[in-house]
Amino acid sequence: MKRIISLLIAFFLISILLLINCGKPSFTFPESSSDVYDGSFNSVTQTMIYANTEYIVELGTLTVLENRNKNNSRYIHLPVIRVRTNAEKPLEPVFCLTGGPGMSNLEHVGMKWYLMPNHDIVMVGYRGIDGSSILSCPEVAKAIKGKGDLFSEESIQALGQAWEKSALRLQKEGVDINGYTILDVIEDNELARRAFGYEKIDLQGVSYGTRVAYLYGLIHPESIHRTVMTAVNPPGRFVWERDVLDEQIREYSALWARDSSAEVRSKDLYSDIMRGLNSMPDRWLFLPIDKGKVRCVAFSLLFKNETAALVFDAFIAASQGDYSGFALMSLAYDYVMPEMFTWGELACKAVSADYDSTRDYIADMSPTEKYPMGSPMSELLWSPLNRG
User: How far apart (Å, rounded) are the C-alpha atoms in residues 66 and 64?
Assistant: First the structure.
C-alpha cells in the first residue's frame, strides 16, 4: 500500500510540474523596429546573474514574414534572448533549439549557464508559440480529452473536427498556417545570426530541436561551426512506430531482469505490462480507467528512465490486482494533456514535415495482439487526419 501511495503522489507531482513553466524567464521584450522588413531587429539590454556571475542579457524583437512564399504576407514578431559571455576571446555563439513542437524555445535560459563563460547564448522564439502569433487551439484542447473512450470512433471523429475548426478559425483571424514550418524556423534563426553579426554559430538541439539543427546544417552549411544533438529526432520521427515502442519496452524488461532486486518484484516485466494492457478494468473504486489515456501517459513517461519506473510500478501493481496506478494515469491525462502543447504550432510543424497521405494511421498505430501498447501518441495525433 505504501508503494501505491508513493506512486499516486509521484503522478500528481509530475502532473503539476508539467503544467508549470518552471524555467520560463520573466523578460520584457521591446517593440518591433520602426523600419519593418524581414529580419529587422530592435533590442534592449539588462543584466542578469547566473551561477553567481553577472551577464549582459540582450532582449530583442525580430520582425519576420509570416509566409516567405507570399509577396503580400503579413509580418509577425519573435522574441530573441542573447546572453553575452564575459570572455575576452569568445568562442562561437551557441544557438539553442529546444524540444517540441508545441513548446516554447525561451524557457530554459538558466540551464545553459555552463556554456556562458566562453559562448554567447542565443534563443530565438519559435514562430507559432513565442511572440505575436500564437497558434492556440482550445477546440483541440477540449476534444483531446475524448468522449468516454479516448480512442473510440466518436472521439477520433470529434478530434478531427476540432482540428478542422481550429484551422478555419485561425485563417479567419488572418493567420497563414502555411507559414509555420521547420524551414521557416531555420530562416528565423539565420536572420538572427545576421542581425547579431555572427559569421559562424554552434547549434545545440534537443529532440525536435535536433531536426531543426540537422536541416539548418544542410541548408546553410556555411553558417554552422558545430552542432550538438541530444535525443535526436530524424526526419519521419514525429510518427512513433508501434514496433519500435514494443522493442523499447522489451529492452527495459531485459535491463530489469539483470537487476536481482528488481526481479524480486517481477520475474518478467514485459509480460506484466502486456497482461496489464489486456486485462485493464473500467474503473478502480470510484475512479474511471480509460485504457487509451493509460497508454498515452505510459508512453510519455517512458521517455525518461526516472519516470519510466513509475510506469513499471503501476503495471506490476496491476499484475497483483491493484489498479490504482491506472486510475491516476487516466486522471493525470485529463489535467496534463490539454495544456501540454500549443496544439496549432505542433500540428503545423509536424504535419508539414512528416504527414504521409497514403498511410492509414488508425490501422498502423492501434493496438494489436502482437503490439498491445500500440503507438498511443501517434494514434492520438495522426489518426484524426484520417477522419477530419
Answer: 6
Identify the H or E element spanning 12. helix 2-19
pLDDT band at 52; cut points 50, 70, 90: confident
Write down the mean pLDDT value for the chain. 91
Q: Which CATH architecture has domain 40-135+179-230?
A: 3-Layer(aba) Sandwich (3.40)
**pLDDT, tens only, 286-342:** 999 999 999 999 999 998 888 999 999 999 999 999 999 999 999 999 999 999 999
Between CA 4 and CA 18 the distance in angstroms is: 21
Average pLDDT, integer, range 36-48 = 92
Secondary structure percentages of the chain, helix, strand, coil, to 5: 50, 15, 35
Q: What is the pLDDT of residues 96-137, one digit of tens each?
A: 999 999 999 998 776 677 888 999 999 999 999 999 999 999
Instruction: Retrieve residue 346's grid coordinates.
Output: 505542433
Q: Which of 64, 79, 102 is nearest to 186 (CA)?
A: 64
SS (HEC) of 47-70: EEEECCEEEEEEEEEEEEECCCCC
Q: Which of 147, 181, 196, 140 is nearest to 163 (CA)?
A: 140
Tell if the pTM clears 0.85, that is, is over it: yes
Q: Please answer whether residues 107 and 209 qualify as being in contact, where contact means their C-beta atoms are separated by less than 8 angstroms.
A: no
Closest by CA position to 336, among listed 95, 3, 15:
15
Length of the chain: 388
Q: Which residue's entry shows cell 523499447? A: 248
The set of residues, in sequence order, having a beta carbon less than 8 Å from that of 213 and lying 6+ positions away, is 97, 203, 204, 205, 227, 229
Among residues 197, 213, 230, 233, the alpha carbon closest in space to that of 95 is found at 213
- Residue ranges per structural domain of the chain: 40-135+179-230, 239-386
- pLDDT bucket at 32, cuts 50 / 70 / 90: confident
